[in-house]
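Feature request, filed as a ticket because there's no other form

It would be nice if the structure record came with a short human-readable summary line next to the C-alpha coordinates. Right now we just get the raw output. Example of a typical job, pasted below so the devs can see what we mean:
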Amino acid sequence: MSVNHLRLKNNSRIVIIGGGPAGSFFAKDAIQQAKNHNINIQITIFNSKNFSQRGPSGCNMSAAVIAASLHAKLTRDGIVLPDSIVRQKIRGYYFHTEEYGIELYKPDQKNKSSIMAVYRGNGPLYSSHTENHSFDDFLLSHVINQGVRVISEPVQDLYLPSNPDAIPTVIYGKGGQHEKMEADLVVGAFGINSNIINKIERLNFGYVPPKTIRTCQMEIPLDPVFIKNAFKDNIQVFALGIGPFRFASMVPKGNYVTVSLVGSRDLTSNDLLDFINHPIVRKNLPHDWEMPEKFCMCLPKIVLSHAINPFTDRFVLVGDASISRVFKNGLESAYITSQLAVRAAFESGISSDDFAMQYYKPARKMLAMDNRLGSVILAISDFITRQNWLVKARLSYVQDKRGSWIANHLNTLLWNMVTGDAPYNKILIQALHPIFQIKLIPVTAKAFFTALITNIIKRLIK
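Raw output as currently delivered:
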Protein backbone atom coordinates (compact mmCIF):
# COMPACT_ATOMS: atom_id res chain seq x y z
CA MET A 1 0.00 0.00 0.00
CA SER A 2 1.33 3.46 -0.90
CA VAL A 3 1.66 5.96 1.94
CA ASN A 4 -0.29 8.45 -0.15
CA HIS A 5 -3.25 6.08 -0.19
CA LEU A 6 -3.63 5.29 3.48
CA ARG A 7 -7.35 5.69 4.01
CA LEU A 8 -10.12 4.81 6.43
CA LYS A 9 -12.37 2.14 5.07
CA ASN A 10 -15.28 -0.04 6.14
CA ASN A 11 -14.77 -1.38 9.70
CA SER A 12 -11.68 0.74 10.32
CA ARG A 13 -10.82 1.20 13.99
CA ILE A 14 -10.14 4.61 15.49
CA VAL A 15 -8.66 4.96 18.97
CA ILE A 16 -8.86 8.34 20.70
CA ILE A 17 -6.60 8.96 23.69
CA GLY A 18 -8.43 11.43 25.93
CA GLY A 19 -12.14 11.82 26.64
CA GLY A 20 -12.27 15.59 27.06
CA PRO A 21 -13.95 17.96 24.58
CA ALA A 22 -11.31 17.46 21.86
CA GLY A 23 -11.80 13.68 21.97
CA SER A 24 -15.59 13.94 22.05
CA PHE A 25 -15.64 16.50 19.24
CA PHE A 26 -13.44 14.24 17.09
CA ALA A 27 -15.65 11.23 17.77
CA LYS A 28 -18.83 13.19 17.02
CA ASP A 29 -17.53 14.44 13.67
CA ALA A 30 -16.04 11.05 12.76
CA ILE A 31 -19.44 9.39 13.25
CA GLN A 32 -21.04 11.93 10.93
CA GLN A 33 -18.29 11.64 8.30
CA ALA A 34 -18.56 7.83 8.34
CA LYS A 35 -22.28 8.17 7.61
CA ASN A 36 -21.54 10.61 4.81
CA HIS A 37 -19.05 8.17 3.28
CA ASN A 38 -21.35 5.18 3.87
CA ILE A 39 -18.83 3.20 5.90
CA ASN A 40 -18.86 1.64 9.35
CA ILE A 41 -16.15 2.59 11.82
CA GLN A 42 -15.36 1.49 15.36
CA ILE A 43 -14.38 4.26 17.77
CA THR A 44 -12.83 3.65 21.17
CA ILE A 45 -11.98 6.44 23.59
CA PHE A 46 -9.48 5.86 26.39
CA ASN A 47 -10.40 8.10 29.29
CA SER A 48 -8.81 7.45 32.66
CA LYS A 49 -10.21 10.62 34.27
CA ASN A 50 -13.60 10.46 35.98
CA PHE A 51 -15.34 13.74 35.13
CA SER A 52 -18.04 13.07 37.72
CA GLN A 53 -15.50 13.68 40.49
CA ARG A 54 -15.23 17.09 42.16
CA GLY A 55 -12.05 19.14 42.16
CA PRO A 56 -8.90 18.86 40.01
CA SER A 57 -9.02 15.04 39.86
CA GLY A 58 -12.18 15.19 37.72
CA CYS A 59 -11.49 18.49 36.00
CA ASN A 60 -9.51 19.53 32.94
CA MET A 61 -8.72 22.79 34.72
CA SER A 62 -9.80 25.82 32.74
CA ALA A 63 -12.01 28.86 33.27
CA ALA A 64 -14.63 26.92 31.27
CA VAL A 65 -16.46 29.70 29.47
CA ILE A 66 -18.31 28.67 26.31
CA ALA A 67 -18.11 31.53 23.84
CA ALA A 68 -21.23 32.55 21.92
CA SER A 69 -19.59 31.35 18.69
CA LEU A 70 -19.04 27.85 20.12
CA HIS A 71 -22.54 27.81 21.58
CA ALA A 72 -23.89 28.48 18.08
CA LYS A 73 -21.87 25.57 16.69
CA LEU A 74 -23.02 23.19 19.41
CA THR A 75 -26.64 24.20 18.82
CA ARG A 76 -26.21 23.63 15.09
CA ASP A 77 -24.81 20.16 15.88
CA GLY A 78 -27.87 19.33 18.00
CA ILE A 79 -25.98 19.53 21.31
CA VAL A 80 -28.24 21.35 23.76
CA LEU A 81 -26.77 21.90 27.21
CA PRO A 82 -29.19 21.14 30.08
CA ASP A 83 -29.65 23.53 32.99
CA SER A 84 -27.57 21.30 35.26
CA ILE A 85 -24.52 21.85 33.02
CA VAL A 86 -24.94 25.60 32.46
CA ARG A 87 -23.89 27.15 35.77
CA GLN A 88 -24.62 30.69 34.59
CA LYS A 89 -25.62 32.46 31.40
CA ILE A 90 -23.33 35.41 30.90
CA ARG A 91 -24.81 38.74 29.83
CA GLY A 92 -21.57 40.61 29.25
CA TYR A 93 -18.23 41.66 30.70
CA TYR A 94 -17.13 44.36 33.12
CA PHE A 95 -13.66 45.65 32.27
CA HIS A 96 -11.65 46.89 35.27
CA THR A 97 -8.48 48.96 35.18
CA GLU A 98 -6.51 50.47 38.07
CA GLU A 99 -8.55 53.68 38.08
CA TYR A 100 -11.63 53.04 35.97
CA GLY A 101 -14.16 50.44 34.90
CA ILE A 102 -16.60 50.07 32.05
CA GLU A 103 -19.35 47.55 31.28
CA LEU A 104 -19.02 45.84 27.92
CA TYR A 105 -22.10 44.68 26.04
CA LYS A 106 -22.54 42.18 23.21
CA PRO A 107 -21.84 44.08 19.96
CA ASP A 108 -24.36 42.08 17.92
CA GLN A 109 -27.59 42.16 19.92
CA LYS A 110 -29.39 40.22 17.17
CA ASN A 111 -27.16 37.21 17.77
CA LYS A 112 -29.15 34.96 20.10
CA SER A 113 -26.23 32.65 20.96
CA SER A 114 -25.34 32.78 24.63
CA ILE A 115 -22.09 32.89 26.56
CA MET A 116 -22.18 30.12 29.15
CA ALA A 117 -20.14 29.43 32.26
CA VAL A 118 -19.72 25.72 32.99
CA TYR A 119 -17.55 23.30 34.95
CA ARG A 120 -15.18 20.93 33.18
CA GLY A 121 -15.39 18.45 36.06
CA ASN A 122 -18.19 17.98 38.55
CA GLY A 123 -17.72 21.30 40.32
CA PRO A 124 -15.25 22.53 42.94
CA LEU A 125 -13.64 20.45 45.63
CA TYR A 126 -15.68 20.57 48.88
CA SER A 127 -18.90 21.53 47.03
CA SER A 128 -22.00 19.65 48.18
CA HIS A 129 -24.29 19.49 45.15
CA THR A 130 -25.87 16.18 44.10
CA GLU A 131 -26.32 16.71 40.33
CA ASN A 132 -23.57 16.11 37.79
CA HIS A 133 -22.39 19.53 36.54
CA SER A 134 -19.56 18.32 34.26
CA PHE A 135 -19.53 19.72 30.72
CA ASP A 136 -16.85 17.21 29.69
CA ASP A 137 -18.88 14.29 31.05
CA PHE A 138 -21.96 15.56 29.20
CA LEU A 139 -20.08 15.64 25.87
CA LEU A 140 -18.59 12.20 26.49
CA SER A 141 -22.03 10.76 27.28
CA HIS A 142 -23.32 12.33 24.06
CA VAL A 143 -20.90 10.32 21.89
CA ILE A 144 -21.35 7.17 24.01
CA ASN A 145 -25.04 7.35 23.13
CA GLN A 146 -23.99 7.41 19.47
CA GLY A 147 -22.13 4.12 19.80
CA VAL A 148 -18.64 5.14 20.91
CA ARG A 149 -16.94 2.72 23.29
CA VAL A 150 -15.12 4.16 26.31
CA ILE A 151 -12.40 2.32 28.22
CA SER A 152 -11.65 3.87 31.61
CA GLU A 153 -8.02 2.81 31.70
CA PRO A 154 -4.86 4.92 31.34
CA VAL A 155 -2.81 4.59 28.16
CA GLN A 156 0.71 3.55 29.12
CA ASP A 157 2.40 3.67 25.74
CA LEU A 158 1.92 3.88 22.00
CA TYR A 159 3.72 1.92 19.31
CA LEU A 160 3.88 3.49 15.85
CA PRO A 161 5.45 1.12 13.25
CA SER A 162 7.99 2.58 10.84
CA ASN A 163 6.16 0.75 8.05
CA PRO A 164 2.96 2.75 7.35
CA ASP A 165 1.24 -0.41 6.12
CA ALA A 166 1.43 -1.75 9.69
CA ILE A 167 -1.05 -0.34 12.15
CA PRO A 168 -0.33 1.32 15.54
CA THR A 169 -0.74 -0.39 18.89
CA VAL A 170 -2.01 1.26 22.07
CA ILE A 171 -0.81 -0.24 25.37
CA TYR A 172 -3.12 0.44 28.29
CA GLY A 173 -4.02 -0.70 31.79
CA LYS A 174 -3.19 -0.14 35.46
CA GLY A 175 -0.25 -1.49 37.41
CA GLY A 176 1.36 -4.46 35.71
CA GLN A 177 -1.84 -5.56 33.96
CA HIS A 178 -1.32 -4.13 30.49
CA GLU A 179 -3.34 -4.91 27.40
CA LYS A 180 -2.97 -4.00 23.74
CA MET A 181 -5.32 -2.62 21.13
CA GLU A 182 -4.56 -2.07 17.45
CA ALA A 183 -6.10 0.78 15.45
CA ASP A 184 -6.03 2.05 11.89
CA LEU A 185 -5.88 5.60 13.25
CA VAL A 186 -4.84 6.88 16.69
CA VAL A 187 -5.91 10.36 17.79
CA GLY A 188 -4.16 12.20 20.61
CA ALA A 189 -6.75 14.34 22.41
CA PHE A 190 -5.20 14.27 25.87
CA GLY A 191 -4.28 17.94 26.33
CA ILE A 192 -1.13 19.80 27.28
CA ASN A 193 -1.43 18.94 31.00
CA SER A 194 -1.25 15.18 30.37
CA ASN A 195 1.86 13.16 31.23
CA ILE A 196 1.56 11.09 28.07
CA ILE A 197 2.75 14.06 26.02
CA ASN A 198 6.35 13.23 26.97
CA LYS A 199 5.96 9.70 25.61
CA ILE A 200 4.62 11.05 22.32
CA GLU A 201 7.64 13.34 22.04
CA ARG A 202 9.97 10.35 22.49
CA LEU A 203 8.40 8.53 19.51
CA ASN A 204 10.78 10.57 17.34
CA PHE A 205 8.53 11.45 14.42
CA GLY A 206 9.34 15.14 14.87
CA TYR A 207 6.70 16.20 17.36
CA VAL A 208 7.64 19.20 19.50
CA PRO A 209 5.03 20.21 22.11
CA PRO A 210 3.83 23.81 22.41
CA LYS A 211 5.58 26.14 24.81
CA THR A 212 3.57 26.57 27.99
CA ILE A 213 3.17 28.75 31.05
CA ARG A 214 1.62 27.84 34.39
CA THR A 215 -1.57 29.69 35.33
CA CYS A 216 -3.60 29.81 38.54
CA GLN A 217 -7.27 29.12 39.20
CA MET A 218 -9.42 29.17 42.32
CA GLU A 219 -13.08 28.53 43.09
CA ILE A 220 -14.55 30.94 45.63
CA PRO A 221 -17.82 29.90 47.34
CA LEU A 222 -20.16 32.87 47.78
CA ASP A 223 -23.81 33.47 48.50
CA PRO A 224 -25.67 33.17 45.16
CA VAL A 225 -27.75 36.27 45.94
CA PHE A 226 -24.55 38.26 46.43
CA ILE A 227 -23.11 36.92 43.15
CA LYS A 228 -26.29 37.84 41.29
CA ASN A 229 -26.40 41.37 42.70
CA ALA A 230 -22.67 42.12 42.56
CA PHE A 231 -21.78 40.51 39.22
CA LYS A 232 -25.08 41.12 37.40
CA ASP A 233 -24.36 38.11 35.16
CA ASN A 234 -21.12 39.73 33.98
CA ILE A 235 -17.66 38.23 33.87
CA GLN A 236 -15.28 40.60 35.64
CA VAL A 237 -12.08 41.17 33.64
CA PHE A 238 -9.07 42.93 35.17
CA ALA A 239 -6.35 44.83 33.34
CA LEU A 240 -4.65 46.36 36.37
CA GLY A 241 -1.30 47.05 34.75
CA ILE A 242 0.63 45.31 37.56
CA GLY A 243 3.03 42.42 37.33
CA PRO A 244 3.02 39.57 36.87
CA PHE A 245 -0.61 39.45 35.71
CA ARG A 246 -1.40 39.69 32.01
CA PHE A 247 -5.01 38.58 32.19
CA ALA A 248 -7.34 38.00 35.12
CA SER A 249 -11.03 37.24 35.36
CA MET A 250 -13.74 36.32 37.84
CA VAL A 251 -16.49 34.17 36.35
CA PRO A 252 -19.82 33.82 38.22
CA LYS A 253 -21.13 30.26 38.39
CA GLY A 254 -24.22 30.15 40.58
CA ASN A 255 -22.88 29.81 44.12
CA TYR A 256 -19.18 29.97 43.14
CA VAL A 257 -16.89 32.41 41.36
CA THR A 258 -14.01 31.06 39.29
CA VAL A 259 -10.86 33.17 39.52
CA SER A 260 -8.55 32.66 36.54
CA LEU A 261 -5.09 34.25 36.31
CA VAL A 262 -2.55 34.31 33.49
CA GLY A 263 0.85 35.91 34.04
CA SER A 264 4.07 36.82 32.29
CA ARG A 265 5.71 33.92 34.17
CA ASP A 266 4.62 30.76 35.94
CA LEU A 267 2.19 31.74 38.68
CA THR A 268 2.06 30.43 42.24
CA SER A 269 -0.45 30.37 45.08
CA ASN A 270 1.22 33.51 46.49
CA ASP A 271 0.33 35.35 43.27
CA LEU A 272 -3.27 34.31 43.83
CA LEU A 273 -3.22 35.88 47.29
CA ASP A 274 -1.74 39.10 45.90
CA PHE A 275 -4.49 39.30 43.30
CA ILE A 276 -7.32 38.54 45.72
CA ASN A 277 -6.08 41.23 48.09
CA HIS A 278 -5.85 43.93 45.44
CA PRO A 279 -8.29 46.77 46.32
CA ILE A 280 -10.03 46.66 42.92
CA VAL A 281 -10.58 42.90 43.24
CA ARG A 282 -11.79 43.14 46.85
CA LYS A 283 -14.61 45.42 45.72
CA ASN A 284 -16.12 42.38 43.96
CA LEU A 285 -16.18 40.35 47.17
CA PRO A 286 -18.23 40.79 50.36
CA HIS A 287 -16.67 43.40 52.65
CA ASP A 288 -16.15 40.82 55.43
CA TRP A 289 -14.89 38.03 53.13
CA GLU A 290 -11.86 36.07 54.24
CA MET A 291 -9.88 33.41 52.46
CA PRO A 292 -11.35 30.02 53.47
CA GLU A 293 -9.12 27.42 55.10
CA LYS A 294 -10.02 24.87 52.43
CA PHE A 295 -10.62 25.79 48.82
CA CYS A 296 -10.36 24.37 45.31
CA MET A 297 -7.27 25.61 43.46
CA CYS A 298 -5.07 24.39 40.63
CA LEU A 299 -2.01 25.53 38.67
CA PRO A 300 -2.61 24.23 35.14
CA LYS A 301 -0.45 24.91 32.11
CA ILE A 302 -1.72 26.74 29.04
CA VAL A 303 -0.04 27.00 25.66
CA LEU A 304 1.96 29.96 24.37
CA SER A 305 2.66 28.54 20.93
CA HIS A 306 1.64 25.74 18.60
CA ALA A 307 3.18 22.28 18.31
CA ILE A 308 5.54 21.27 15.53
CA ASN A 309 4.59 18.16 13.53
CA PRO A 310 1.59 17.02 15.62
CA PHE A 311 1.01 14.14 13.18
CA THR A 312 2.58 11.22 11.38
CA ASP A 313 1.22 8.25 9.43
CA ARG A 314 -1.92 6.94 11.17
CA PHE A 315 -1.55 9.34 14.10
CA VAL A 316 -2.74 12.91 14.70
CA LEU A 317 -2.95 15.25 17.69
CA VAL A 318 -5.86 17.65 18.23
CA GLY A 319 -6.66 20.25 20.89
CA ASP A 320 -4.12 22.30 22.82
CA ALA A 321 -1.35 19.69 22.52
CA SER A 322 -1.49 20.58 18.82
CA ILE A 323 -2.75 24.09 17.99
CA SER A 324 -4.91 26.37 20.09
CA ARG A 325 -5.65 30.07 20.35
CA VAL A 326 -3.35 31.65 22.91
CA PHE A 327 -5.22 32.80 26.06
CA LYS A 328 -8.62 32.55 24.33
CA ASN A 329 -11.32 30.03 23.46
CA GLY A 330 -9.53 26.78 24.22
CA LEU A 331 -12.77 24.82 23.92
CA GLU A 332 -13.53 26.27 20.51
CA SER A 333 -9.96 25.60 19.37
CA ALA A 334 -10.51 21.94 20.31
CA TYR A 335 -13.68 21.98 18.21
CA ILE A 336 -11.89 23.51 15.23
CA THR A 337 -8.81 21.27 15.26
CA SER A 338 -10.91 18.13 15.73
CA GLN A 339 -13.16 19.07 12.84
CA LEU A 340 -10.20 19.78 10.54
CA ALA A 341 -8.47 16.52 11.48
CA VAL A 342 -11.63 14.46 10.92
CA ARG A 343 -12.20 16.08 7.53
CA ALA A 344 -8.59 15.38 6.51
CA ALA A 345 -8.82 11.74 7.61
CA PHE A 346 -12.06 10.95 5.77
CA GLU A 347 -11.78 13.15 2.70
CA SER A 348 -8.06 12.89 2.02
CA GLY A 349 -6.39 10.14 4.02
CA ILE A 350 -4.49 9.27 7.18
CA SER A 351 -0.91 9.54 5.97
CA SER A 352 1.55 12.10 7.26
CA ASP A 353 1.25 14.03 3.98
CA ASP A 354 -2.53 14.10 4.24
CA PHE A 355 -2.47 15.51 7.77
CA ALA A 356 0.27 17.98 6.85
CA MET A 357 -1.65 19.49 3.95
CA GLN A 358 -5.29 19.05 4.93
CA TYR A 359 -5.10 19.46 8.71
CA TYR A 360 -1.93 21.14 9.97
CA LYS A 361 -1.62 23.75 7.22
CA PRO A 362 -5.19 25.11 7.51
CA ALA A 363 -5.07 24.89 11.34
CA ARG A 364 -1.87 26.94 11.39
CA LYS A 365 -3.38 29.47 9.03
CA MET A 366 -6.53 29.78 11.12
CA LEU A 367 -5.02 29.67 14.62
CA ALA A 368 -1.22 29.69 14.81
CA MET A 369 -0.52 32.58 12.45
CA ASP A 370 -3.18 34.63 14.22
CA ASN A 371 -1.49 33.86 17.54
CA ARG A 372 1.72 35.56 16.36
CA LEU A 373 -0.21 38.71 15.67
CA GLY A 374 -2.02 38.26 18.98
CA SER A 375 1.26 38.23 20.91
CA VAL A 376 2.08 41.66 19.47
CA ILE A 377 -1.38 43.04 20.26
CA LEU A 378 -1.27 41.67 23.82
CA ALA A 379 2.16 43.24 24.38
CA ILE A 380 0.79 46.60 23.25
CA SER A 381 -2.26 46.09 25.46
CA ASP A 382 -0.01 45.33 28.46
CA PHE A 383 1.87 48.59 27.87
CA ILE A 384 -1.30 50.65 27.51
CA THR A 385 -2.94 49.27 30.64
CA ARG A 386 0.11 50.35 32.65
CA GLN A 387 -0.57 53.97 31.61
CA ASN A 388 -3.38 54.72 34.05
CA TRP A 389 -3.79 58.32 32.86
CA LEU A 390 -4.39 57.12 29.29
CA VAL A 391 -6.76 54.27 30.14
CA LYS A 392 -8.88 56.39 32.47
CA ALA A 393 -9.15 59.25 29.98
CA ARG A 394 -10.20 57.07 27.08
CA LEU A 395 -12.64 54.87 28.97
CA SER A 396 -14.32 57.78 30.75
CA TYR A 397 -14.66 59.63 27.45
CA VAL A 398 -16.28 56.62 25.82
CA GLN A 399 -18.55 56.13 28.84
CA ASP A 400 -19.74 59.73 28.46
CA LYS A 401 -20.38 59.13 24.75
CA ARG A 402 -22.23 55.85 25.29
CA GLY A 403 -24.38 55.03 22.26
CA SER A 404 -22.17 56.99 19.87
CA TRP A 405 -20.11 55.44 17.09
CA ILE A 406 -16.84 55.80 18.99
CA ALA A 407 -18.31 54.22 22.15
CA ASN A 408 -19.69 51.29 20.17
CA HIS A 409 -16.36 50.88 18.35
CA LEU A 410 -14.30 50.76 21.54
CA ASN A 411 -16.84 48.42 23.16
CA THR A 412 -16.51 46.04 20.20
CA LEU A 413 -12.72 46.28 20.31
CA LEU A 414 -12.53 45.51 24.04
CA TRP A 415 -15.23 42.83 23.75
CA ASN A 416 -13.25 40.99 21.07
CA MET A 417 -10.06 41.33 23.12
CA VAL A 418 -11.51 39.72 26.25
CA THR A 419 -13.76 37.13 24.57
CA GLY A 420 -11.72 36.05 21.55
CA ASP A 421 -14.86 36.29 19.40
CA ALA A 422 -12.80 37.85 16.59
CA PRO A 423 -9.36 36.86 15.25
CA TYR A 424 -6.47 39.08 16.22
CA ASN A 425 -6.07 40.47 12.70
CA LYS A 426 -9.60 41.85 12.89
CA ILE A 427 -8.89 43.28 16.35
CA LEU A 428 -5.81 45.06 14.97
CA ILE A 429 -7.85 46.56 12.12
CA GLN A 430 -10.43 47.76 14.65
CA ALA A 431 -7.72 49.29 16.87
CA LEU A 432 -6.07 51.13 13.96
CA HIS A 433 -9.30 52.43 12.44
CA PRO A 434 -8.33 55.98 11.34
CA ILE A 435 -11.56 57.68 12.47
CA PHE A 436 -11.31 55.97 15.87
CA GLN A 437 -7.72 57.11 16.35
CA ILE A 438 -8.38 60.66 15.13
CA LYS A 439 -11.33 61.13 17.48
CA LEU A 440 -9.18 60.06 20.44
CA ILE A 441 -6.23 62.39 19.67
CA PRO A 442 -7.57 65.41 21.61
CA VAL A 443 -8.62 63.17 24.52
CA THR A 444 -5.16 61.59 24.65
CA ALA A 445 -3.39 64.94 24.37
CA LYS A 446 -5.45 66.50 27.16
CA ALA A 447 -4.87 63.52 29.43
CA PHE A 448 -1.13 63.52 28.70
CA PHE A 449 -0.64 67.17 29.60
CA THR A 450 -2.87 66.83 32.68
CA ALA A 451 -0.79 63.88 33.89
CA LEU A 452 2.43 65.73 33.09
CA ILE A 453 1.41 68.83 35.04
CA THR A 454 0.18 66.72 37.96
CA ASN A 455 3.53 64.93 38.17
CA ILE A 456 5.42 68.25 38.05
CA ILE A 457 3.32 69.65 40.89
CA LYS A 458 3.86 66.50 42.96
CA ARG A 459 7.64 66.77 42.52
CA LEU A 460 7.61 70.47 43.47
CA ILE A 461 5.64 69.72 46.62
CA LYS A 462 8.17 67.05 47.59
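Something like this underneath would help us a lot:
The first strand starts at residue 12 and ends at 17.
The first helix runs from residue 21 to 36.
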